[in-house]
């Protein structure tokens, strides 16, 4: 079994939104993300990055927008696989599945954003494809959600619901400390 760290959409558009007053459900996500990348790199474990480039030129994730740039805490290094997606799931239209199969990767540790969008879509698909998947709850980025009736769900509650949706069905949820201890062993 080979385990890879799958880093999803850790891009500046999320930082821009936070600067506009959108509270992250996980204020320390960048610290956890950086620690996990360092640990995997130190052990020589595979890393896979997925970046979102929205086809809409006005979207903050469009390739020509500053928001599409990768956050410094998650910048890929030379030799690390990078896949570009235009939709939610990292598996659709990217070659990610073929890459993982070619590398013999059976287990995924998933971090990034947004928890209830691209992370959840990718993790659900990974689970359905048979990957043993761990979602690192405190290494995810997300924001509040406005319900159809106009009520606002706080970012922390959106994160907890997303983790509840995934845990046990599509993945196991763990903390950064738990994963760091496994990597160090």
Automatic annotation (TrEMBL):
<protein>
    <submittedName>
        <fullName>Isochorismatase family protein</fullName>
    </submittedName>
</protein>
<dbReference type="InterPro" id="IPR050272">
    <property type="entry name" value="Isochorismatase-like_hydrls"/>
</dbReference>
<dbReference type="InterPro" id="IPR000868">
    <property type="entry name" value="Isochorismatase-like_dom"/>
</dbReference>
<feature type="domain" description="Isochorismatase-like">
    <location>
        <begin position="3"/>
        <end position="140"/>
    </location>
</feature>
<dbReference type="InterPro" id="IPR036380">
    <property type="entry name" value="Isochorismatase-like_sf"/>
</dbReference>
<keyword id="KW-0378">Hydrolase</keyword>
<dbReference type="Pfam" id="PF00857">
    <property type="entry name" value="Isochorismatase"/>
</dbReference>
């Amino acid at each position: 079994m080979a385990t890879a760290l799958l880093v999803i959409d850790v891009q500046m558009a999320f930082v821009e939104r936070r600067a506009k007053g959108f509270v992250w459900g996980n204020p320390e996500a960048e610290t956890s993300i950086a620690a996990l990348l360092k640990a995997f790199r130190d052990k020589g474990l595979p890393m896979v990055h997925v970046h979102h480039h929205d086809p809409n030129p006005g979207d903050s994730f469009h390739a020509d927008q500053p928001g599409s740039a990768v956050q410094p805490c998650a910048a890929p290094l030379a030799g690390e696989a990078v896949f570009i997606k235009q939709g939610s799931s990292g598996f659709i239209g990217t070659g990610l599945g073929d890459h993982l199969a070619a590398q013999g990767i059976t287990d995924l540790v998933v971090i990034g954003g947004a928890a209830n969008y691209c992370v959840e879509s990718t993790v659900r698909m990974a689970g359905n494809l048979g990957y043993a998947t761990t979602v690192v709850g405190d290494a995810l980025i997300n924001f509040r959600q406005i319900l159809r009736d106009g009520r606002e769900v706080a970012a922390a509650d959106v994160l907890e619901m997303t983790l509840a949706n995934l845990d046990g069905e599509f993945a196991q949820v763990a903390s950064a400390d738990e994963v760091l201890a496994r990597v160090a062993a």
